[in-house]
Structure formats: C-alpha cells, structure tokens
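Researcher: Sequence of tRNA (guanine-N(7)-)-methyltransferase follows. Predict its structure.
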Amino acid sequence: MTEPRRERSTEAFFGRRRGKPLTDLQSQRMRDLLPRLRLDLDTAPSSDLKTLFAAPVDLVRLEIGFGGGEHLLHRIEENPRTGFIGVEPFVNGMAKFLRAVAETPGDRIRVYEDDATRVLDWLPDASIDHIDLLYPDPWPKPRHFKRRFVNPGNLDRFARVLKPGGAFNFASDIDTYIDWTLSHCDRHAAFEWLATRPVDWHTPYAGWPGTRYEEKAIREGRKPCYLRFRRV
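Model: Prediction complete. Tokens:
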C-alpha cells in the first residue's frame, strides 16, 4: 500500500538545516539555552510584545535568517532599550549564536529555529518596529524564484505586523534578487522605498557591522546593496 503523501510543514524558504556536527559546547547550549529563549507559538502572544522580554524595552525588532548572529549580536549590544526576535532554521547558525548569547545577558532576546512565516503569522498586528532580512538565500535559478522569501504573501505578512512608520531593511549582493525585491515592494501599497540618491543603494545602514557573508561577496567581486523601506 502506498503511504499517503504528507503536506509540507513549512513554506521552505530556506535551504539545508544542518552542517558540520555540533561541538559538545554548542550541543549543550542548544539543550540548555534554546528552550529558555525559544518563542512558544502554541501560546497566543500578548498584544504588547514588550512583555516577551525580562528587561524593559521600548522597541521590538525582528531579524529573519540571522546566520551565525554577528549582526544580531551587534544590534543587541548597540540598542539597550530594544527587544529582539531572531529566526534561524540552520542548526549550526543557531548553535553559534546561542554560544555567544551565553556570554551576554539574554533578557532582551527571543529566538525561533524554524520557518519565519510561522512567527510572522503568530505575531499580533502592528507589533514590530523593524524587520531585517539580510543576505537571504537568493535562490538564483529561475525555477527556484518561488522560494525567495520576498514575495507578495510575505510582504503582506510584513505589512500586517509592522507598525505604521516601521522599517524593513533588505540587504543582498545578488542583482536579480535586489531587482526582484524592489519590484515587489514597489507594487505593494504598504511599502515606500526611502532611497533619494543613487549612492543610497550602496550605503550601509547606520551602525552596520558587516557580516562574514558580505566580506566573502566583496572578495568575489559582488557589490552589496542596502535597501530601506518604510511601512506607510
């Protein structure tokens, strides 16, 4: 008898889930720290997301696909009155981040290690001040474009959870994805592109620390692009 086909549990905007075997310390952090910081999507969120955090915060910021967490850790240290939600389905990236978080206060951090669309659908309306989508998987082959995270459905999700005037930052070194994102955001009534001069395309965000992926892209001759959008 043929086993019935199972529906996908995620929308599969990310690629592989695992890389090299974790070190003993990374595995320990995943066991000990992840359950404490992980969002519980089975429980309805408070209408005020600031209550997610043990420390008092004024703003809530979401980073989707934070990799090893270099940018997220920098922003946490830079913004002591902001609470952060980080989503990263790649196990090795989450483990690296948690190892670093163990050395810093974790009272302004919550994480999720699966599909970011689940978090977006869980969040209350107009609850997020800022969304970062930095160097997402470009899915460069046309037959894979449907797996790019920027699409009409996810922009609808961003529009719902962002507060009016909230920010959406997108960075990439892949020309086709940059054009793709500009085109999709231009067609979406909720987003305004904030560039006013040609140089704005290639001007890093304020306080930008750079990432290892970005350094690699520059070495290989690809020019980073930083797009800024506002929720209107």
